[in-house]
């Protein structure tokens, strides 16, 4: 049987205990692994691995020894409870192994969860799981951003309460972050809010954002815009040590200062300029951006953008000057314009 959309999401949350086997296949291996973890937890419970009720087999191992799959499905553990056997990275060439294992299965056997890469409609493995008897299912894992219902489920499973502003921010982040990164962030948020009396707010979500090169570049841009020379140099050296090219940083700084330019030159003033940003900004980010914009006069912003453009052109030219030294001097000059 083939499950799609809401039916697939409902099954992954609360699978039928009578399920014998499930195929999860999709283009994005990380997303498929995330769905597999959710399904295994729902089938076997959170303690399945600790209680040795979960068996993992690699595709190569099953190819070398097809009997190992049947042995894993039939094996009885020391602890009571539902058992799950996972086979990862399956291919069409393993169809006969799955047919035999499931053809000889009994109600006492473990539930089989199989993951695979992108399988076209003509795939023999996919056709088998989609057309098999009751209790054998196929679910395609797409690259769509997590829905609001999925985010609510992830929050509930981690016992995290959030206020409306935090929920809106999480839904925005779901459009930009990989689902695995978003789930890791929620794990961090659950620890951050441990024993907290109130629901998580926007500031709490912002404090748990994953650190990326983009977020570090944003910190560098903020330090420059706020005129913090020492902090500017510290962020720049850290990014340089991570191997980030100066041209990448220059592009990030230009983007940040063009944003400030749009706010400063907005006919309705700074507040209206920030309100016109898309995507919108909230909470501490909004307050910090407002403070930055208020430090810059229109002429100074234009000079800063010209400085960044000239530096970018020099970096891309045949100049023999050290790239990071050029970048550092330019950023120090721009930081010293702040508030003047």
UniProtKB/TrEMBL annotation:
GO cellular component: DNA polymerase III complex
GO MF entries: DNA binding; DNA-directed DNA polymerase activity
InterPro entries found in the cross-reference section: DNA_pol3_clamp-load_cplx_C, DNA_polIII_delta, P-loop_NTPase
Catalytic activity: DNA(n) + a 2'-deoxyribonucleoside 5'-triphosphate = DNA(n+1) + diphosphate
Keyword Nucleus set for record: no
E.C. number: 2.7.7.7
GO biological process terms on file: DNA-templated DNA replication
Keywords recorded for this protein, A-Z: DNA replication, DNA-directed DNA polymerase, Nucleotidyltransferase, Transferase
UniProt keyword Transferase present: yes
Sections of the chain in a coiled coil: none
Family per record: Belongs to the DNA polymerase HolA subunit family.
PANTHER family recorded: DNA POLYMERASE III SUBUNIT DELTA
Protein name: DNA-directed DNA polymerase
């Amino acid at each position: 049987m083939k499950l799609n959309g809401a039916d697939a999401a409902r099954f992954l949350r609360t699978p039928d205990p009578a399920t014998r086997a499930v195929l999860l296949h999709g283009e994005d291996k990380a997303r498929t692994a995330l769905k597999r973890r959710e399904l295994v937890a729902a089938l076997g419970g959170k303690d399945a691995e600790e209680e040795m009720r979960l068996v993992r087999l690699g595709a190569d191992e099953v190819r070398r020894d097809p009997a190992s799959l049947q042995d894993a499905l039939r094996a009885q553990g020391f602890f009571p409870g539902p058992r799950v056997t996972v086979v990862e990275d399956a291919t069409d060439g393993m169809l006969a192994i799955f047919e035999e294992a499931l053809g000889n299965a009994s109600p006492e056997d473990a539930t089989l969860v199989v993951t695979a890469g992108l399988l076209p409609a003509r795939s023999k493995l996919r056709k088998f799981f989609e057309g098999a008897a009751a209790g054998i299912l196929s679910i395609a894992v797409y690259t769509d951003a997590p829905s609001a219902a999925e985010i609510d489920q992830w929050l509930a499973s981690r016992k995290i309460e959030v206020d409306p502003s935090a929920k809106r921010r999480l839904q925005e982040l779901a459009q930009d972050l990989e689902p695995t990164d978003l789930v890791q962030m929620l794990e961090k948020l659950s620890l951050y809010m441990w024993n907290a009396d109130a629901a998580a707010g926007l500031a709490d979500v912002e404090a748990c954002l994953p650190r990326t090169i983009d977020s570090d570049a944003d910190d560098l841009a903020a330090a420059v815009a706020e005129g913090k020379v020492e902090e500017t140099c510290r962020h720049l050296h850290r990014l340089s040590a991570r191997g980030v090219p100066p041209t990448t940083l220059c592009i990030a700084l230009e983007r940040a200062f063009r944003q400030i330019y749009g706010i400063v030159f907005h006919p309705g003033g700074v507040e209206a300029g920030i309100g016109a940003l898309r995507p919108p900004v909230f909470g501490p980010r909004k307050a910090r951006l407002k403070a930055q914009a208020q430090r810059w006069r229109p002429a100074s912003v234009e000079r800063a953008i010209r400085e960044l453009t000239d530096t970018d052109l020099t970096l891309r030219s045949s100049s023999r000057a050290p790239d990071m030294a050029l970048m550092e001097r330019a950023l120090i000059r721009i930081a010293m314009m702040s508030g003047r």
